Amino acid sequence: MAATASPHFLRARRLTNALVTTAITLLGLVALTFFIGRVIPIDPVLSIVGEKATQEAYDKVYYALGLDKPVWEQFTSYTFKLLQGDFGTSFTTTRPVLTDLLSFFPATLELATLGLLLGVALGVPAGVASAYWHDKWPDHLIRIIGLIGYSVPIFWLGLVGLYVFYYKLDWVAGPGQIDVFFVGIVKPITNSILIDSLIGGHWDVFWNAFSHIVLPVCLVGYFSMAYLSRMTRSLMLDQLTQEYVLTARLKGANEFEVVVGHALRNAAIPLVTIIALSYGGLLEGSVLIETVFGWPGIGNYIASSLFRGDINAVLGGTFLVGAIFIILNQLSDVLYATLDPRTRELRK
Amino acid sequence: MSATQTVASAGSARWKQIVSFCRRFARNPLGMFGLFILVALLFCAAFAEIIAPYDPYLPNLTARLTAPGAEFLLGSDELGRDILSRVIYGSRLTLLIVGLVILTSAPIGLLIGVVSGTYGGWLDAFFMRVTDVFLAVPKLLLALAFVAALGPGIVNAAIAITLTAWPPYARMARAEALAVRNSDYVNAVRLAGASEFHIILYHIIPMCMSSVIVRMTLDMAGIILTAAGLGFIGLGAQPPMPEWGAMISTGRKFIFDQWWVATVPGFAIFIVSLGFNLLGDAVRDLLDPHLKARS
Question: B193, B200, B257, B267: which sits with the fewest CB atoms below 10 Å from its CB?
Answer without folding.
Answer: B193
